[in-house]
Amino acid sequence: MEKNTESPELTLPAGVWPAALTPFSHTLEIDREAFVRHVTALTQAPHVTAIVVNGHAGEASSLSQAERLELIALAKAAVGTQVAVISGVIADATDEAESLAGEFERAGADGILLFPPSGFRLGVQDRPDMAVEFVRSVSSATSLPICLFQYPLSSGMGYPTSLLRTICEQVGAVVAVKESSDYPADYERNCAALADLGRPVRILSSNNAWLFASLAIGGDGIISGIGSVAAPILSDIYDRVLADDLVEARAAQRRLFALTEVLLAPPLCDSHTRMKVMLCELGIFPTATVRGPLLPITDPGEVQALSRALDAAGLRATTASR
């Protein structure tokens, strides 16, 4: 039975959506106390309107379904109605994605972030009906609003602008797009294509290396795993761009640049592990433990570089003032 009637009342907020990390103990169990502390701290930053759980930043692929459901419940209990809790739906089969969406709704999620199946990298651009049907099918399994994850076209999993627009035209439950095209021209093209749909579809930039520049082009906010560490800076960038204060927006971007230079350095697979190291430095996480196949950061020089980046970004003072 189709649950989502594509009501025009479906919406997701503009603003800053940090993607939460998942803290683990030394025995690889979820550290619930640290997770609640983390999520609660994120909501203290201005303009944070949603928290994303069960995404790449949260090591969702290493979590059991019971753990994913528990993280939703923990986040909802921590933030109440203050901000939305959005859960990632990562699945390679349509029926699995449908099942996840329904279970996450029952667990209390306020919306879902729908990832494309990895098989799309083999040519979904040439089978646009496949992408439309996938999103439509997941929408039918839940009454929640959907934020669609737009990957870079170079990944093979991104939707060309015409397909992105078609999905939004045909599936009214898609009310937001996590836009990570990586290229300014693609980003601007997608913003323009969705601007005249006849209904609002939020564009939330996830272009971490140029968040300020992307918001200067357009958009309604930010989704970022870097927000797990730098939510106050992302909020500052968002606020300054809204106010057309480019001088202060550039200053905030320089603070963010100090972080992205180390967090996004090769190998990129270590980026979220580095964020955990930073959260340990800030006293939010007791350990930077990750689950395999990820490995810990053990190079003392890299740990020191991460610590220096926190100082350069001014985040220690921000955290201490909470």
Automatic annotation (TrEMBL):
Keywords: Lyase. It holds the Pfam family DHDPS. Signal peptide: none annotated. It comes from the Bacteria. Pyruvate binds at I223. InterPro entries: Aldolase_TIM, DapA-like. GO terms for molecular function: 4-hydroxy-tetrahydrodipicolinate synthase activity. The keyword Lyase applies. Belongs to the DapA family. This is Dihydrodipicolinate synthase family protein. It comes from Acrocarpospora macrocephala. The lineage of its organism: Bacteria, Bacillati, Actinomycetota, Actinomycetes, Streptosporangiales.
